[in-house]
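Notes for week 9. Today we move from apo structures to complexes. The key idea is that a small molecule is not decoration. When we ask for a structure prediction with flavin mononucleotide present, the ligand SMILES becomes part of the input, just like the chain. The input block below holds both the sequence and the ligand string. Read it once before you look at the output, and try to guess where the molecule might sit.
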Amino acid sequence: MEIIDVLAICGSTREKSFNRALTLAARDLAPDPFRVEVWDDHTGLPHVEAAPGRPFPAAVGALRDRVSRADILLLVTPELNRNIPGRLKDIVDWLSVPAPPRPLMGRPVMLMSASPNRFGGAFAQLQLADLLRRAGAEVLTDLDVTVGSAHRHVDDAGNLVGEEPRHEVAQLWRRLLARTADGRQAVPV
Ligand SMILES: Cc1cc2nc3c(=O)[nH]c(=O)nc-3n(C[C@H](O)[C@H](O)[C@H](O)COP(=O)(O)O)c2cc1C
């Protein structure tokens, strides 16, 4: 089976971030034929600016190209004030600028989130899904993961150790694979 290229972006750069732990677990638990690469160039990315006709900053152009090549985009979001953090909004806004290549247009996107409360970032996911749909992405809303009480599932070294969320992540890949294999969902765009 051909490799399914997944680009993962986490909306937190905090050391021992719960969402980063979830992102790395999603990468490590992905079975063949998924290959998950974690994008991490947060410091290189400027804040979004509306500058029609002006070339994209190099880091933005590189990110837009990379997302355009991915079969699936995986966005892992913290929840701040029931919304996504500004850095993730910047990323989605840069990706949504309607210049070729249109990285989000028709792109399958999976969402994950982790937070210390019992909702696990579900409100942020709703906001993110809305934003992505507006940019033309195909949000795989039935293939999401929310990790509530995240402090109980991430160890001091920043690893996702909770059995339940790890099982949920592994299960998600299996469900996506089953769907891909039986052709109900064409993953590559
Ligand atoms: C300003 C602020 C607002 C927050 N608002 C929410 C919230 O609305 N819902 C929630 O579940 N957690 C909220 N939190 C807690 C974050 O989920 C928590 O800090 C989490 O660890 C951030 O993700 P990270 O560990 O991946 O960096 C908030 C935290 C801050 C600092």
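The beta strands are 4-10, 34-39, 72-77, 108-114, 138-139, 145-147.
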